[in-house]
Write a structure and sequence with these properties.
This protein is α+β, with helices and mostly antiparallel strands and 199 residues long. Helix content is 15%, strand content 29%. The protein is built from two helices and eleven strands, in the order βββαββββαββββ.
C-alpha cells in the first residue's frame, strides 16, 4: 500500500502497535508478522459483521508508510532528528473504539464480580463462544472498548490476537515464527513450526 498516512503512534504494552490516523475515526493496527495479522483480521472481520463483538475492519492486511525518526549529524559534532517514512509491520485499518474503564475492580473484569461491567462482559464473552467457538480469555479493561452504533455505545473486544484466546473454534492457528528470526517464537505450534505454543 503506497498511500501515506500521518498517524500518532500508540502502544498499550503488547506486541501490537496502533497508529491513529489524523482526522479519521479509524487507525492502523499492526502485528509482529503477517501470519498474526491475517489471523486477527479474519477473527475481527467475523466478529464485527453482522455481529458487533469487535470494531469494524476497513482494509485487507497490508503495510502503510509511517514516520520514523533517525539521528543525523548536524555537521557541527552534534545530531539532529530527521523524519523519514518507513514501512510499518503488517496490519489493517480498523475502527477506533472508545476506552473502557471500570470503577470497582482492578481491571481484570471477566473474573471479578465487583466490576460494574461484569454482566455485560460475561454476556459478550459467552456470545462470542456460542457464535464462533472462540474462548476469549483476556477480557480486561484494556482489551475492551465501545463503538457507536446509531445512538448507542456497544461493548466490544479490541484485542483479537491469538494470545488473547484459548480455544479458537475452526480458525487456523497462525504462525508465530514467520519472519521473526528470533528465539522468542521458538515454541510456535502451528503446522509449519510444530513447536509447543499453548496460547
Amino acid at each position: 500500500m503506497t498511500t501515506m498516512y500521518v498517524g500518532k503512534y500508540a502502544d498499550g504494552g503488547s506486541k501490537n502497535s496502533f497508529y491513529k490516523m489524523k482526522g479519521r475515526k479509524y487507525g492502523f493496527k499492526s502485528f509482529p508478522n503477517k501470519s498474526l495479522a491475517e489471523f486477527a483480521h479474519t477473527v475481527q472481520s467475523d466478529l464485527s459483521v453482522p455481529f458487533t463483538f469487535a470494531p469494524r475492519v476497513y482494509s485487507p492486511v497490508c503495510r502503510i508508510r509511517i514516520p520514523n525518526y533517525f539521528a543525523v549529524s548536524d555537521g557541527k559534532g552534534g545530531y539532529k532528528a530527521e523524519e523519514k517514512l518507513v514501512l510499518s509491520d503488517w496490519g489493517y485499518l480498523t475502527e477506533i473504539a472508545y476506552p473502557c474503564s471500570c470503577r470497582r475492580c482492578d481491571g481484570y473484569c471477566y473474573d471479578n464480580d465487583l466490576c460494574d461491567k461484569y454482566d455485560a462482559i460475561n454476556d459478550l464473552v459467552g456470545e462470542i463462544y456460542d457464535s464462533f467457538g472462540i474462548n476469549y480469555t483476556d477480557a480486561h479493561n484494556a482489551n475492551l472498548g465501545y463503538v457507536k452504533r446509531g445512538k448507542n455505545k456497544v461493548l466490544v473486544i479490541v484485542d483479537v490476537g491469538r494470545e488473547s484466546m484459548g480455544e479458537i473454534g475452526e480458525y487456523e492457528e497462525p504462525c508465530w515464527a514467520e519472519g521473526s528470526g528470533g528465539d522468542e517464537y521458538e515454541y510456535c505450534s502451528c503446522y509449519k513450526c510444530g513447536g509447543g505454543y499453548s496460547g
